[in-house]
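dumping this here before i forget
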Amino acid sequence: MGFLQISGLGKVHFHEYGEGAKPMLAFHGYGMTGRQFHVLQQSILPHYHIYGFDHFFHNESKLDNWTEQQILTGMPKALVREYVEEWFKIYGRQRFSLMAYSVGAKLALILIEEYADLIDEIILMAPDGLSVHKGFYFLTDNPAGKQLFKWVSKSAWLAPAMLKSMKKLKFIDDSLHKIAYSEIDTPKKRLDVYYTLNLIRRLTPDVNKVAELINKYQISCIMIFGRDDHLFPKADAMEFIDLLPNANIIVAPFGHWLVTKEIDKYLLDNGF
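structure:
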């Protein structure tokens, strides 16, 4: 493990694991750490050496004295490339691959815009960033939603009530409700959710450019979706998928919670 010190942003903590020689930069989902992918012991780890980065407000990654207003304004998209530039300073400029799950996919997709000529493979699992998520957009960009999100982050009862309503209206299923509830049951956790989603609100990939570059540089692209995922389903990614004639699309019999020992076995059993 180690740290990247990114000027104007902060200290990014990363984990190293995997038995393979090929470097793969990995970006985890909300509430996890850069070690999230360590469960992929049969399908991924034998082939790659993983550098798994912790998101800010997760584990040991820390912003450099950012004010709340800076956080709510959001991290500039241009700073994402600095992850790789700082990584190059430690390990040398070289080819690499990318893996990302859920909200972490935003960073991976932006890095394709910047480094497509150096990328061998990208694995996206239940990816965010391929279309506008109406729920997240409402909470971080709509004036009424922003105010509601602020109230929710400060309230011990409003957040659970809101999740209950979302489950009742079938915006989320029971598994997502359980996961989300576990992330809002303390004041610090609620504030971390609030800050995290606002910090990444401006990290919007240019999906048409990303698809063009994947095709141009013949980057191996594997996309894994949960058949029962109600948060980032395959249907929401179809416009992007249609632009990638050579992508390997996998729909696994799971929900959004994909990075598990079960998906590892599923991938292995299906020739991954």
